[in-house]
From TrEMBL:
GO molecular function: oxidoreductase activity
Name of the protein in its database record: SDR family NAD(P)-dependent oxidoreductase
Family per record: Belongs to the short-chain dehydrogenases/reductases (SDR) family.
Family annotation (Pfam families): adh_short
UniProt key word S-adenosyl-L-methionine: no
Keywords, alphabetical: Oxidoreductase
InterPro entries listed in its UniProt record: NAD(P)-bd_dom_sf, Sc_DH/Rdtase_CS, SDR_fam
Originating species: Rhizobium straminoryzae
PANTHER family (alphabetical): 5-KETO-D-GLUCONATE 5-REDUCTASE (PTHR43669), DECAPRENYLPHOSPHORYL-2-KETO-BETA-D-ERYTHRO-PENTOSE REDUCTASE (PTHR43669:SF6)
Keyword Transit peptide included in the entry's annotation: no
Length: 250
C-alpha cells in the first residue's frame, strides 16, 4: 500500500532521520501523524510535509521518553488519523559515556530513553499491528549495539537490547502479516553527533539513511544496516579476537 491510503505514525518526528523519512512518505501522498515534545518544530515539520504532498498531517505533543500508558496513548495516536499502516520510532539520546560511567543517574537516563521507553512504544505498536494483521514497525537502532566498545558501551548496551527486542518482535510476527525492521545506521550527520569529527566516507546523511528506512518499511527485515556496507564492517568488528580488539581505539 502506498499513496493516499497509507497512514504513518512517526515517534520522535523532529529527529533528522525521521523528518527525512517523512518527506519521502509525503511525496507519496501519505497521511502522517508527527509525535514529539517540541510543538514549534512539529508544526514546522508538518507545514513542510504538507507542501511536499502529504494528504494530511497531524501533530501530537508527547514526551516519548516518559510514557504514561503507551498502549492507550498509541491507540489514541492511531485513532487521530483513522488507523495506522507504518510506524517509525526514531528518537534517542547519545549521552556522555565518560559522565555516565561515573554518574549512574546519567547512565540510567541513557538506558531509560533509548531502551526502556522505546520498548514500551514498540510493544504498544506491535500489539496493534498484530491485531489488525498487517503493517510495518520500523525502529532506528545503531551499529553501536553490535559490540561493546569503550567509547560508547552504555549507549551501545541500550541499542543491543533494542536489537534483541526487535528480533523477537519480528519472530513473533512471522506468518502473521505485520513486519518488524530494525535499522542500524552507522555514524550520521545529525544534531546528536555535533562536535564530532564528521569527515570521511563512513559518515552518512539523514537522507541516505531515510531512503533505506523507507524501502525496508515496505519490504525486508528484521535488520538493515544503513548504509549497507556497515554490515560487513560490523561483521569484522564482531569477530575480531579480543587481543586485537582491545588494542583498538574505536
Amino acid at each position: 500500500m502506498r499513496g493516499k491510503e497509507l497512514r504513518l505514525i512517526v515517534l520522535g518526528a523532529t529527529s533528522s532521520i525521521a523528518a527525512a523519512t517523512a518527506r519521502l512518505y509525503a511525496a507519496d501522498g501519505a497521511t502522517i501523524l508527527l509525535v514529539g515534545r517540541d510543538q514549534d518544530r512539529l508544526e514546522q515539520t508538518a507545514a513542510d510535509l504538507a507542501i511536499r504532498g502529504a494528504e494530511r498531517v497531524e501533530t501530537a505533543l508527547c514526551d516519548l521518553a516518559a510514557p504514561q500508558d503507551a498502549q492507550r496513548q498509541f491507540s489514541d495516536f492511531s485513532a487521530r488519523i483513522g488507523g495506522v499502516d507504518h510506524v517509525l520510532l526514531a528518537y534517542g539520546i547519545l549521552g556522555d559515556q565518560a559522565d555516565a560511567e561515573r554518574n549512574l543517574a546519567a547512565a540510567e537516563d541513557i538506558l531509560r530513553v533509548n531502551f526502556n521507553s522505546a520498548t514500551a512504544w514498540a510493544l504498544a505498536a506491535a500489539n496493534l499491528l498484530e491485531r489488525q494483521g498487517r503493517g510495518s514497525l520500523v525502529v532506528i537502532g545503531s551499529v553501536a549495539g553490535d559490540r561493546g566498545r569503550r567509547a560508547n558501551f552504555i549507549y551501545g548496551a541500550a541499542k543491543a537490547g533494542l536489537a534483541a527486542l526487535m528480533e523477537g518482535i519480528a519472530h513473533r510476527f512471522a506468518d502473521k502479516g505485520p513486519r518488524a525492521v530494525l535499522i542500524k545506521p552507522g555514524p550520521t550527520v545529525t544534531p546528536m553527533t555535533e562536535g564530532m569529527n564528521r569527515s570521511g566516507a563512513l559518515w552518512a546523511s539523514p537522507e541516505q539513511v531515510a531512503q533505506i528506512v523507507y524501502r525496508r518499511a515496505f519490504r525486508g527485515g528484521p535488520v538493515a544496516y544503513a548504509p549497507g556496507f556497515w554490515r560487513i564492517i560490523m561483521l569484522v568488528i564482531r569477530n575480531l579476537p579480543s587481543f586485537i580488539f582491545n588494542r583498538m581505539e574505536i
